[in-house]
Design a protein that fits this description.
This protein is mainly β. It has a single domain, classed as Cathepsin D, subunit A, domain 1 (Beta Barrel). It has five helices and 22 strands. GO terms for molecular function: aspartic-type endopeptidase activity.
Length: about 375
């Protein structure tokens, strides 16, 4: 699925553009001339070649889904914190993205920051706003071990090592913790607490250049001055397997990178992400989608803006029920989660139509599981 979304809630119109790209091929993702980067799942072929890891249980097994839901329990609770003719932008390393299962099942991209340039493998998260990197850290991940026994060294950002780095002071409009400041000219602190397993990132805000480019080989590179977090102390899952080398918040608030790019007039107030079944994807900043693309308005709460839309119907196996509820688009979760009454309506309708025998297992993270025989070649379920 590819989708584009507004990155600032201060404009008069807001939309999220949804396009099913599975049958159209990757040329759909390349047609908009945006700034972007590739995103990849950890177990896609390109990433296997980089990290030489393959420790996720076989896809489709009970153990696989247990691992996936455990990862979501860690990540999903995080604190959620222009002109149309602008050329869309991508990261300097390109707009490929990769999905890493062993690194929290998140989508990652290589970004380049500072002068001289250093690269960082950051997780892409539409469910949070702040972009932060491990930086002069007393608590962070410096290297990653692979199943072959090799060590992958991560770059650690240092403001002192970059000639284009600047401090962000407490009088900045980006400083949300001014009450923590001894004076207006002090360096602005930040702390993002995520709502699971004591996961957080703490440090100070800095400004430096994010190196971007376009898909057009004739276009020049763009060095965008952005504000981000110098993450000195990471806790919880950031010290284990989620976003060990930084988190790239893609949310709606004014401190997210898409919003900053739009505020500076470098891109349109939008970005797009395309995801492929092989774990490889694309991201572009300033992508407005096609003129014939469908649009869905956001439900925006200015005090806590998220990519939230209204759903009005649920269809299971040809049975369509009217039920209105809100849902948030979050690239940091693996599954779709429903609250009641939507969950009960969906699961009970599915179960009533399922032909397979119901399975009960205390080891499963799911309430509804079904048994199939080892030589069964098809599943009789209301999947249409």
């Amino acid at each position: 699925m590819g989708w584009s979304c507004s990155s600032s809630y201060r404009h008069s119109s807001f939309c999220i553009l949804l396009v099913l790209l599975l049958s159209l091929g990757w040329h759909c993702c390349y047609g908009f001339r945006t700034f972007g980067l590739d995103i990849h799942h950890r177990f896609s072929d390109p990433v296997k070649g980089i990290l030489a890891v393959d420790d996720l249980p076989e896809k489709g097994t009970l153990e696989y889904y247990v691992a996936m839901t455990q990862r979501d329990q860690v990540i999903r609770g995080r604190h959620l914190a222009s002109a149309d003719d602008l050329t869309p932008l991508a990261f300097a390393y390109g707009n490929d993205t990769y999905r890493f299962n062993s690194l929290g099942h998140l989508h990652y991209a290589n970004v380049s920051v500072g002068t001289p340039t250093e690269s960082f493998l950051v997780a892409l998260d539409t469910g949070s706003d702040l972009f932060w990197l491990p930086c002069n850290c007393t608590s962070c991940v410096h290297q990653l071990g692979t199943t072959t026994g090799e060590k992958i060294e991560f770059n650690i950002y240092s403001p002192e090592a970059s000639s284009t780095s600047k401090k962000v002071l407490c009088n900045s409009t980006f400083c949300q913790q001014q009450r923590q400041c001894p004076s207006a000219t002090s360096t602005c602190p930040y702390q993002v607490r995520y709502l699971s397993n004591g996961t957080s990132s703490t440090g100070v805000l800095v400004e430096d250049v994010l190196h971007l480019t376009t898909d057009d080989p004739r276009s020049k590179s763009v060095d965008a001055h952005i504000t981000f977090g110098c993450g000195q102390v990471q806790t919880g899952s950031f010290l284990e397997n989620a976003a060990p080398n930084g988190l790239f918040g893609l949310g709606i608030s004014n401190i997210s990178v898409p919003s900053i790019l739009a505020q500076k007039g470098l891109t349109s107030n939008s970005f797009s992400m395309c995801f492929g079944s092989d774990g490889v994807g694309r991201i572009r900043f300033g992508d407005n989608g096609r003129s014939d693309q469908g649009k869905t308005p956001f439900n925006l709460v200015e005090s806590h803006p998220t990519y939230n839309i209204s759903i009005t119907q649920i269809g299971v196996g040809g049975t369509v029920s009217d039920l209105e509820f809100s849902a948030i688009f979050d690239s940091g979760t693996s599954f779709t989660y429903l609250n009641d009454p939507a969950y009960t309506l969906f699961t009970q309708t599915f179960n009533s139509k399922a032909k397979e025998k119901r399975h009960s297992s205390k080891d499963s993270p799911f309430e509804y599981c079904y048994d199939i025989s080892p030589n069964q070649t098809s599943i009789r379920c209301p999947c249409g």
